Amino acid sequence: MDSKTLAISIQSLTFQPLTSKMKEVMAMMDRQLSVAQFGEMSEPRFELIPTDRIVERATAALPPHATLTITCSPKKGVDATIETAIALAPHFARVVPHIAARMIRSGGHLDAMLEELQANDLDEIFVIGGDQRQPLGPYHHGFDLLQSLATREHEICRIGIPAYPEGHPDIGSDILAKDVLAKAPYAHYAVTQMCFDPDQVLAWVRSQREAGLQLPFYLGIPGPVKPDKLIRIATRIGVTDSIRFLRKNLKLTGKMLRGYDASDLLSTYAPHLNESDNGIAGFHMYTFNELDTLKKIFGRIAI
């Protein structure tokens, strides 16, 4: 199926009201414990995009004990990410800026960012390569930045890295497998890309453990997002296989698509949070800034 046909199918979706099972699993995000193997306490994690009024909207919609992560895009730049993270920090338990290696202009620029984070008591970052086509400075990949951080004086005490159970549109699977293993000694946890097929993700987790990767994983789950927006995002990040899986497993009323109920995805993951062999630390929600819908969810489950 081509992207245009797939888009037409997805645009027919409407999200159903939350089921009691969905509420129960979502509520679990508030009390999730990581596996004993890693001995960490996990709080709800929500990824935000630094846009206008995001600070106001986030403080109105999200629980103050949550961890927020702030994305980094070529359009806004890494400095906008830092600025947004600093503005959100007084309102939430933890705020984690994404630091895109390819958007750092120089070693001096990196040092200035680290000093700014320290001055505002931000001690955790999420290191990515970034979508910048041409690097603005000396760091071409996330691994380059991780190595540089290891040689610098700073107060960062936790570093996260991305992982791709369904692959990456611009990077081969063999390279991805080597990349995450190379980064692991410099990191404290990994967050998986959004994927709708839980069996594929869990199989990938097991394969990573067999390959020797011991980092805790936060499993990336999609937040409540409108279907047309979902297909645009899925196409851009290269998870079209997941969209096909989603479409295949939708409930049908006659021959009309009714909608996607994320409770099955979350319920499949839930039992594995307590399996020490998996090392699953919790969930990471890609909100796509659909915060009004999230606020309604939290109101129902008293998160």
Automatic annotation (TrEMBL):
Substrates-to-products reaction catalysed: (6S)-5-methyl-5,6,7,8-tetrahydrofolate + NAD(+) = (6R)-5,10-methylene-5,6,7,8-tetrahydrofolate + NADH + H(+)
Cofactor entry: FAD
GO terms of molecular function: FAD binding; methylenetetrahydrofolate reductase (NADH) activity
GO cellular component terms, semicolon-separated: cytosol
GO biological process: methionine biosynthetic process; tetrahydrofolate interconversion
Top-level taxonomic group: Bacteria
Pathway, per record: One-carbon metabolism; tetrahydrofolate interconversion
Transmembrane feature ranges: none
Pfam families reported for this sequence: MTHFR
Keywords, alphabetical: FAD, Flavoprotein, Oxidoreductase
Family: Belongs to the methylenetetrahydrofolate reductase family.
Name the UniProt record assigns to this protein: Methylenetetrahydrofolate reductase
Organism: Salicibibacter kimchii
